[in-house]
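I am writing to request your help with a piece of structural work I have in hand. Thank you for your consideration; the sequence and its tokens are set out here:
=====
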Amino acid sequence: MNLKALKYAVEVARTGSFTRAAQHSHVAQSALSMAVARLEHELGVPLFDRSVRGVTATAEGGRFLERVDLMLQELAAARQELTSLANLQSGEVRLGFAPMFGMGRLPMWLEQFHAQYPGVRFKAFEGGGQEVDWRLESRDIDVALMNARRVKPHWQSAVVDADELVLCVLPDHPLAKLDAVSAEHLQGLPMAVLDGRFAQRLMLDEYCKQHRVAFCTVLQSNDAPLVLQAALRGLGATTVFKSNLHAVGNLISVPFETPQHLQFSLCWRADEHLSLANRRFIEFVTGKPMPVQPRR
């Protein structure tokens, strides 16, 4: 069924005239009349009653062309939406991230990306490494910012940031005066910590296991602001990444004698279609162009 013929027929029904329909469609009347006639032949039903007094749609033609008109409006809207998406006048990025990114670089990246592409909206989900991992695997998100150690071999990824874990204590704490803390300083140390799903806790546990020391857990939570508030109120020391030190108030940061470094990666599922909005965000964060996606 020819799309132009459908458009011509709708215009004839709207104007009640083949002549006016041809003028509005910027086509010769003979060409328009032939296209409508071929459409009627294809359908096996006359769409119009033709008389010297004008052209009116038949009962069947009227019902049919009402639906066609709605379809053409939807098609025009779909084309406009596609154009907007292709030009990034609209679009969506579904992003999962660890809590430290919500206090660190992520807000800056979102601000800068939004300045370039104000029509793109974000849906951002905070969670521990396991939760972000699950969301990416289940296609609940499109891209993820996570501990580089968690990247799976069947994902694509790029290292986008590096950080260092430090101990944070109140100014009057004995450890606040040290240039660095050793493993021995952690033995029996009262601490407010995140649970084992978070990179800070995993690194702390690995460090303690390696040096055969154990801290004393005063508070364990999956809520980063609560853990920080507990440290600020003197419940115990805590660990923070250097990029988040601006959020720790009057806590004093002390590095470990053996610096505890961690890399962070931006990840996405390999060999799957990515929307243009996601591709542009990945390119923005990594600073590298993505290869052209093969047509499926």
